[in-house]
Amino acid sequence: MEAAVKKSMLIALALGLTLVAGTAAAQPAPVNQAGVTMGHWHIASKDVEANKKLFVAMGGKLFMPGGQPLIMFPGLYISLVLGNEKGDGGSVGSVVNHVGFIVDNVQKRVAEWKAKGVNVLPGGALPNGGGNRLDQAYVETPDGVRMEILEDKTQAVPIRNEHIHFFLPAAEIPKAVEWYAKTFGGVAATRNNAPVVNLPGVQLRFNAADTKQAATRGRVLDHIGFDTNDHPAVVKRLEGMGIKLDQPVGKGATGNTITYVTDPWGTRIEIVQRLPVGQEVRSTN
Question: CATH classification of 3-273, choosing from 3.40.50.2300, 3.40.50.300, 3.10.129.10, 3.10.180.10?
């Protein structure tokens, strides 16, 4: 009897640790001095199930806060439903040209993803085809959100969030770097001789575009989001800098406290104080 009780306690403890670990893994990086950290990409999916299948195949974990599908990768949430909206236009052609993951081994992960039906383009293939970089690849969602896949053989996880890549007219890039560093407490730096802004959990990168790109609002990648643990303080700071909210602070579909701002180049940004997302939903197949 005593042995059975001990066994039951050990099973319960193991289950509890698994649940705690799953919840902890879903947490974003700690906020910076401006009170923000990387939060999410928000995809106004045309086909929610197809996107869900893709991201889970790539290693994402599915959660269903408030009945809404939410994919979690280390350092990132991906929301797949935006009310009744269906985005029009992929990420290419908008100010957020693409987003990026980094994996521990590109060729290994690509082989795994292809075996699960993920369509992967080789490194160096975009925008004009060809290419044979082994430490880079691309994946596009069925409705056109482009994701760059890069490699860090030293990282401890198979895949994690890495960057957001803005395409802006060359003259606007220094202004955008200054705006993001000032507005969200980022640190300006360079990568491969190109300007970047480092924020908790993400690097913002900037490339020159030949022409002005479309705003994100209404496209499939409708907006990006930063999380905070003190929404009123972040809103007060933004308004104190003269930044106008796109809409009053309110509650989102899953109960999160939210508002939006739009940067001067057309990227819509959600500011979120997030409720717990609950437990991972695992496939029974």
Answer: 3.10.180.10
Distance CA 131, CA 126 (A): 8
d(CA 228, CA 274): 8
For 208-219, the pLDDT digits (tens) are 999 999 999 999
Tokens of 123: 């490194």
pTM of the full structure: 0.89
Per-residue pLDDT tens over the stretch 32-47: 999 999 999 999 999 9
Domains of the chain, residue spans: 3-273
CA distance 176 to 225: 17
φ and ψ at 220, to 5 degrees? -60, -45
CB 46 within 8 A of CB 225: no
